[in-house]
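To illustrate the input format used throughout this study, we show a single complete record. The first block contains the structure-token representation of the backbone; no residue identities are included at this stage. The design step must infer an amino acid for every position from geometry alone.
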């Protein structure tokens, strides 16, 4: 399984589309097996869900995301977790332990 965290300088980005890039975690046996960073290729409506799907991402974690983007991720079979804050390493740990839950953190721009 691959999990992407919208990242700015090692922290969860407040808005997925405007992040510096995506820290991609390869998960095996409920643990991080590998980590990579993909530069954000640009924020165009509808592009990032397909871009991350093409990189085999199954979960996206971000601070905030608009409802349209959340729908597009869902249509690309990518689970959305929003409302995350802090270090990306802490967020992936919380997700893997089951303590990171999605909130109603929507962006309206």
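Output of the design step:
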């Amino acid at each position: 399984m691959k999990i992407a965290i919208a990242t700015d300088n090692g922290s969860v980005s407040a808005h997925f589309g405007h992040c510096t890039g995506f820290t991609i975690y390869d998960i095996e046996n409920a643990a991080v097996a590998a980590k990579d960073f993909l530069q954000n290729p640009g924020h165009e409506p509808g592009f990032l869900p397909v871009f991350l799907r093409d990189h085999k991402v199954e979960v996206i974690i971000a601070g905030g995301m608009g409802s349209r983007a959340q729908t597009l991720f869902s249509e690309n079979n990518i689970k959305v977790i929003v409302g995350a804050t802090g270090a990306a390493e802490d967020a992936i740990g919380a997700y893997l332990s089951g303590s990171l839950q999605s909130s109603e953190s929507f962006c309206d721009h």
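Structural context for interpreting the output: The two ends are 30 Å apart (CA to CA). The mean pLDDT is 92.
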